[in-house]
């Protein structure tokens, strides 16, 4: 067998090609577990939930989903079975959001194309520029709620504490719309260069935990 | 489980009947059949979508079997040779059922943001919300292929078919071997053919990213399989003129599915079909047919996109309008195929086309060099680890360059051209989308490697197994001396 192999290597270049290919395959297989370990670490961040008492944190990491689909997951987590009113001034592409809210958000019905707005004190609005993307009157399914996005795209280290910001905003809203159970969703973009695996940034939604109690009872 | 088994078996049975009815025999029937069946299913969904037919996947699942059965029966009653081994069919069906059960049990799936879009679009096909859920992005970036193929999952209240992409990956691996063996069986010793067949598949699936794509809810692997099938069948058409019908069907099936699966599918297929369309050894009717087919699919799909934009009072996208017009142009210009001035220097036209792509990239880089530099740096960093391809892309790129420069493979340009034009093509796409590629495993280009990798592996392995040492400059001179024109002049 060895003599035949020697003969093949001596007489036919194809034997060398095959050997080189086998070497490359061996390298690929050798690095496979290491790559898998790194990938697993990122995948595990895909969805986590941490209840910090007053506020509930829904965290979406990796998977590069960011705000595109997180909204729907949050609706599903916050209020499955809700009747949702979409603010079409904020979401012009209403058509695609309806099935998304149905299937990811688990809402019962999507209605009303009238803008839903909650005015904020000027100083807060100027600083965070949050906008309401969806709301629900609740009804028999639970208390009323609304979802707002406030992007913090700070590249510096002075990213405000999300919980403090939520508290400030809730205080601001309470004067304007005391009849609704209020919630705020904050999109936190951590300081990163936007490159590398860091690009799949951690997205944190902070929600008034009391709101979920109402839905849990429903 | 029952719905998924029905869906996968329907796709396989439909495709296998098409290929068998077309005259294909042997184990290539289920291998190519799986891909052709997937293509047929997507085409039926396209018909459902652009006509007043309901968009439910049930019609597709029934149609993908009923239409090939009717055709097969018609050929059988006419007395054509359509025999098949029923025992082999049962064995393949049993194997597929077992794989569906295992893959559903294992629930191996990976996804990212685009996947959610795809699977939800698939669900809307069943729920009847499809037309309301579309907007420009659907036609520009995330076409029908993946939503259509995973659409039957909605019949079992799920979002995707867990076994579909792995089975398409298995068919892709089998097609690599099938094309390799069919093309080289008469010129490569059997033991080398076996060794290189194993090496091709082992190399392809030893990469972490390939395994990722096997379980990834996206259209890259599907497109890669279709590009492989279309280019591989085109290569066989140039090398042999036997059993032409199944090869032509394979080219057409790969073409339509790639167009309907990826935003850059139409451009990619132009690169795949151009060497075939210019090949003088293939009959003119076949070459015109494939280009008219590409143009027709583009006109139907992107024309529908324009109609939807108008219906929703949306501004239609430039990309959709441009590809609609390009489809019309392909159909209109198809009579030129076979013109003497086009055939006389058919290989030079290819080099000119490739040079034009690079020239376009250079011109755009002069205007905005940041996109090019950022893309190049990000791609280099991705290959250094962030892209998680291991050494696959680097090793294959080196091999493609060496093989292109030093090995001569009969008809090898049909495999080589879509591979080497991939780089300028993706750089052009970066400019068209006005954004550089980035570092990270979910970067578009890092995912798009999967679309060209299977074909590149076939090209390299076939060249090493069969080709002879011949520097490219010698080939150009020899070809010049032996060209039809030179022969005519000598005579």
Q: How would you describe this protein?
A:
Mean pLDDT of chain A is 63; it is low at 42-47, 61-66 and 189-202. Chain A has helices at 2-11, 13-43, 66-78, 94-103, 122-128, 162-176, 209-217; strands spanning 48-51, 55-60, 83-86, 109-111, 131-136, 145-152, 185-188, 203-208. In chain A, helix 1 crosses helix 2 and helix 3 packs across helix 4. In chain A, helix 6 links the parallel strand 6 (145-152) and strand 7 (185-188). In chain A, the strands form two sheets. Chain A has a five-stranded mixed sheet with strand order 4-3-5-6-7, with helices on one face. Chain A is built from seven helices and eight strands, in the order H-H-E-E-H-E-H-E-H-E-E-H-E-E-H. By secondary structure, chain B is an all-alpha fold. Chain B is 75% helix and 1% strand.
Keywords:
heterodimer, A: 218 residues, alpha/beta, 5-stranded mixed sheet, 8 strands, B: 491 residues, two-stranded antiparallel sheet, 24 helices, 2 strands, globular
Secondary structural class of chain A = alpha/beta
For the secondary structure, the number of strands of chain A is 8
Strand content of chain B: under 5%
User: Residue-averaged pLDDT of chain A, rounded?
Assistant: 63
- Global Rg of chain B: 22 Å
Number of strands of chain B: 2
Unreliable residue stretches of chain B: none
| C-alpha termini separation of chain A | 75 Å
Largest sheet descriptor of chain B? 2 strands, antiparallel
Low-confidence stretches of chain A: 42-47, 61-66, 189-202
List the total number of helices of chain A: 7
What would you report as the Rg of chain A, rounded to the nearest angstrom?
25 Å
The largest pleated sheet of chain A is described as: 5 strands, mixed
Calculate the terminal CA-CA distance of chain B, rounded to whole Å.
68 Å
Task: Note the quaternary state here.
Answer: heterodimer
- What is the helix fraction of residues of chain A, given as a range? 40-55%
Strand content of chain A: 15-25%
Arrangement of strands in the largest sheet of chain B: 1-2
């Amino acid at each position: 067998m060895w003599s035949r192999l020697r003969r093949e290597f001596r007489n036919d270049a194809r034997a060398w090609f095959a050997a080189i290919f086998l070497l490359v395959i061996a390298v690929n297989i050798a690095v496979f577990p290491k790559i898998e370990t790194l990938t697993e670490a990122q995948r595990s961040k895909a969805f986590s939930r941490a209840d910090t008492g007053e506020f509930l944190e829904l965290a979406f990491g990796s998977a590069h989903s960011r705000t595109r689909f997180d909204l729907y997951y949050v609706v599903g987590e916050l209020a499955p079975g809700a009747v949702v009113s979409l603010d079409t001034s904020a979401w012009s592409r209403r058509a695609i959001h309806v099935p998304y809210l149905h299937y990811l958000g688990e809402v019962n019905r999507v209605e009303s194309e009238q803008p839903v707005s909650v005015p904020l004190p000027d100083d807060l609005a100027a600083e965070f520029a949050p906008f309401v993307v969806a709301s629900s009157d609740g009804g028999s399914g639970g208390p009323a709620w609304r979802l707002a996005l406030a992007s913090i795209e700070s590249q510096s280290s002075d990213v405000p504490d999300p919980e403090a910001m939520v508290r400030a905003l809730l205080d601001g809203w309470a004067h304007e719309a005391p009849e609704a159970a209020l919630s705020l969703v904050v999109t936190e973009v951590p300081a990163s260069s936007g490159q590398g695996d860091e690009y799949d940034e951690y997205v944190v939604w902070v929600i008034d935990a009391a709101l979920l109690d109402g839905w849990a009872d429903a | 489980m029952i719905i998924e088994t029905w869906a996968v078996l329907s796709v396989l049975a439909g495709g296998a009947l098409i290929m068998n009815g077309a005259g294909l025999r042997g184990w290539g029937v289920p291998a190519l059949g799986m891909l052709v069946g997937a293509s047929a299913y997507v085409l039926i969904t396209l018909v459902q979508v652009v006509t007043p037919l309901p968009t439910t996947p049930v019609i597709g699942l029934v149609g993908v079997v009923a239409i090939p059965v009717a055709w097969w029966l018609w050929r059988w009653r006419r007395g054509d040779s359509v025999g098949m081994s029923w025992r082999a069919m049962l064995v393949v069906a049993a194997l597929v059922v077992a794989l569906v059960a295992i893959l559903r049990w294992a629930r191996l799936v990976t996804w990212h943001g685009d996947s959610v879009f795809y699977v939800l679009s698939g669900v809307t096909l069943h729920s009847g919300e499809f037309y309301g859920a579309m907007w420009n992005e659907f036609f520009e970036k995330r076409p029908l292929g993946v939503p259509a193929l995973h659409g039957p999952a909605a019949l079992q209240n799920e979002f995707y078919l867990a076994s579909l992409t792995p089975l398409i990956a298995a068919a892709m691996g089998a097609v690599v071997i099938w094309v390799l063996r069919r093309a080289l069986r008469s010129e490569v010793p059997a033991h080398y053919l076996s060794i290189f067949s194993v090496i091709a598949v082992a190399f392809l699936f030893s990469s972490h990213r390939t395994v990722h794509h096997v379980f990834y809810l996206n259209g890259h692997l599907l497109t890669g399989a279709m590009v492989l099938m279309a280019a591989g069948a085109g290569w066989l058409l140039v090398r042999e003129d036997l059993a032409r019908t199944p090869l032509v069907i394979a080219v057409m099936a790969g073409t339509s599915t790639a167009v309907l699966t990826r935003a850059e599918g139409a451009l990619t297929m132009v690169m795949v079909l151009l060497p075939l369309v210019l090949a003088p050894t293939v009959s003119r009717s076949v070459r015109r047919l494939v280009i008219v087919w590409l143009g027709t699919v583009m006109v139907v799909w992107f024309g529908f996109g324009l109609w939807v934009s108008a219906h929703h009072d949306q501004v239609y996208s430039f990309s959709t309008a441009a590809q609609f017009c390009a489809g019309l142009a392909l159909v209109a210009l198809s009579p030129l195929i076979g013109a003497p001035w086009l055939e006389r220097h058919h290989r030079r036209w290819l080099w000119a086309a490739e040079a034009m792509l690079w020239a376009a990239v250079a011109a755009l880089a002069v205007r905005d060099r940041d996109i090019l530099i950022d893309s190049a740096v990000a791609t280099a960093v991705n290959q250094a680890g962030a892209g998680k391809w291991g050494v696959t892309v680097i090793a294959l790129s080196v091999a493609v360059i060496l093989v292109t420069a030093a090995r001569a493979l009969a008809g090898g340009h049909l495999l080589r051209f879509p591979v080497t034009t991939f780089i300028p093509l993706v750089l052009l796409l970066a400019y068209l989308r006005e954004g550089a590629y980035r570092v990270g495993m979910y970067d578009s280009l890092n995912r798009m490697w999967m679309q060209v990798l299977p074909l590149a592996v076939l090209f390299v392995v076939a060249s090493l197994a069969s080709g002879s040492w011949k520097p490219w400059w010698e080939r150009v001179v020899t070809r010049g001396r032996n060209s039809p024109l030179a022969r005519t002049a000598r005579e």
